[in-house]
Structures are given as C-alpha cells and as structure tokens.
Amino acid sequence: MLDRILRLLASYRVLDCSLNPGQERLYGISRVSKYLVSNEEGVSLASFLDLFLQSVFLESWPKMKDAIMKGGIPFNMVHGMRMFEYAAANSKFNEVYNNALFNSTTIVMKKTLESYKGFEQFKQLVDVGGGFGITLSVITSKYPHLKAINFDLPHVINDAPSYPGVEHLSGDMFQSIPKGDAIILKSILHCWDDNNCLRLLKNCYKAIPEDGKVIVMNGVLPLEPETSDSARDISLLHVYLMIRGDGATERTKEEYVALATGSGFKGINFVCCVCNFYIMEFFK
User: Fold this and answer.
1) Which residues does the chain have with pLDDT short of 50?
2) Where is the O-methyltransferase C-terminal domain (predicted)?
3) CA gyration radius for the chain?
4) pLDDT score for 5
5) Do residues 115 and 54 lie in contact, with contact meaning Cβ atoms separated by under 8 Å?
6) Residues 259 and 160 in one domain
C-alpha cells in the first residue's frame, strides 16, 4: 500500500524515485517535498498544507453551488458562523490555523528581509492582524532598534508567546489601531471586501504620521489570466477564499491602487515580489 502512494507522489514530482541494483524502487526528497520537511529552523509548509485539508474547509466545498446560485457563504452554511468566529470558539482549529501561519510566515519573512529594506528607518512598527507575532519577531531580529507592537484579536493574543522587543496588544482593527511610524498588513486585505478594507486602511491612515507608511504584503492577480506557476497559485487561493466569505478576494495592482487612494493615501509603491507576495507601500 505504501509503495502505491509513494509511486503516485513520485509521478507528481513530490518525491524522487530511482532503482537500486536489485530493481527495487528507492524514494527520496524532491525539490517539491523539501518544503514539507522541517528546515534548520524547524519550520516547513506541511502545516500550511494541513490547514487547507482541514475537514472544516473540505466540508464547505459541496455548498459552493448553493452559494453561487442562491448567495451566501459556504463556510457559514456548514458551520453556522464565520471562519474567524469558528477559530475563536474551537481551540483545536485555532491551534492548526496559527501553527500554519507561524511556519509559513517564518519562511516568507526570512526571504523578504533579504530583498526588502523598508523597515530600517522607522522606530515603531505595528503589525495589524499579526497572529502570534512571528512577523515582528523575524523583523526585530534584524532591526533590534524597532519597538514592535503585535495587534490582533483577544483569542489570538491570549496564546501568543513572548518575543524580545515585541509587545502584544489585543483589539478590533475596524475600531482603532495603535499608532506607529509604519504599519504592516500581511495577508490581511485579501480577507475582506472593499468596504471593510477601506475602513481598515482609513484607521491605518490615522495611526501613522505624515512621513509614515503602510506596508501591505499580499499576492496580486494579473489583469488577465496567465499560465505561470505564480499566477496559478494566486488564482487557486482566489477561489479558495470564496469558501470563507466576508468578501475575501485577491486583487489586481489596479484594485490595490484604488483601495489606497480611496482611503486617503496619495502614493503607492510596488517594491518587490518575494515568495509570491508583493510588498506594497502606501504613503500619505
């Protein structure tokens, strides 16, 4: 049975396969599966894959037709509440969700700091929707002069570990945001519709000084469908977000510019792309 599974994985290049002198198949790690094995820092993308395969999401897919034909949110139809409410009420799922973000964020932010230098001139950085605070932990390890504030919902902050130089604060980002020289929004805007994004960005605008900036990290949809690996990945996530509802959607560059200008920002700079995340800067 195991060999059948390994053979299938090898056919999709998830594993490498070779024959030994006795014509036995030997399987090993491939370029794909190396990301599912813990690296030298003990993190991998296996937990992120585990999140996507959670029954709470798989049970929602059959409701997609009803959502398209009649309206509604597949996740809510099955579970009777929004995903973030479910996470607050279900400690096991909340642990899986936060563990996936911890692992994937560690990998992405390590690579981001190799290319993006936009944190070094600021004194106080606020991560809105920062989960356990791993984004700020990685950033402050390179820029220890920063005072870092990790801001998220109470049920997230309650389980957040301590990191040197990182202060955890709980609250509602749609009400108000702690002040800082710069604010980072990683994988946040794609969780919400335009109206909620505008509410959030206007709060960010109020929380930064005239020379401050909001740093947005999100995938960006091409204006027309493309066949590249990166375009397929972001299009897949674009469909997956339909399950969660709340207007969750990926956006094009043009749509991000519209959000920035609609919330009062005068400039937007697409700095670089790392691990399929665009780093965008919104200026007053």
Assistant:
1) none
2) 61-266
3) 20
4) 96
5) no
6) yes
Count CB-CB contacts under 10 A for residue 44.
Answer: 19
From 197, 193, 167, select the one nearest 185 (Cα to Cα).
197
What was the pLDDT predicted at 267? 86
Per residue in 37-80, pLDDT (tens digit) is 999 989 999 999 999 999 999 999 999 999 999 999 999 999 99
Tell me how many domains the chain contains: 2
Residue 117 corresponds to which tokens in the numbers above? Answer: 């230098």
Tokens encoding 128: 């809105």
| Torsions phi, psi for 264 (to 5 deg) | 105, -10
For 173, list phi and psi in degrees, rounded to 5: -65, -20
The single-letter DSSP state of residue 208 is S
Q: Domain span at residue 257?
A: 39-283
Pick the catalytic residue: 79, 155, 168, 190?
190
- Tell me the pLDDT tens digit for each residue of 159-190: 899 999 999 999 999 999 999 999 999 999 99
Contact 189, 239 (CB under 8 A): no
Name the residue type at position 221. Answer: L
Query: Both 19 and 79 in a single domain?
Result: no
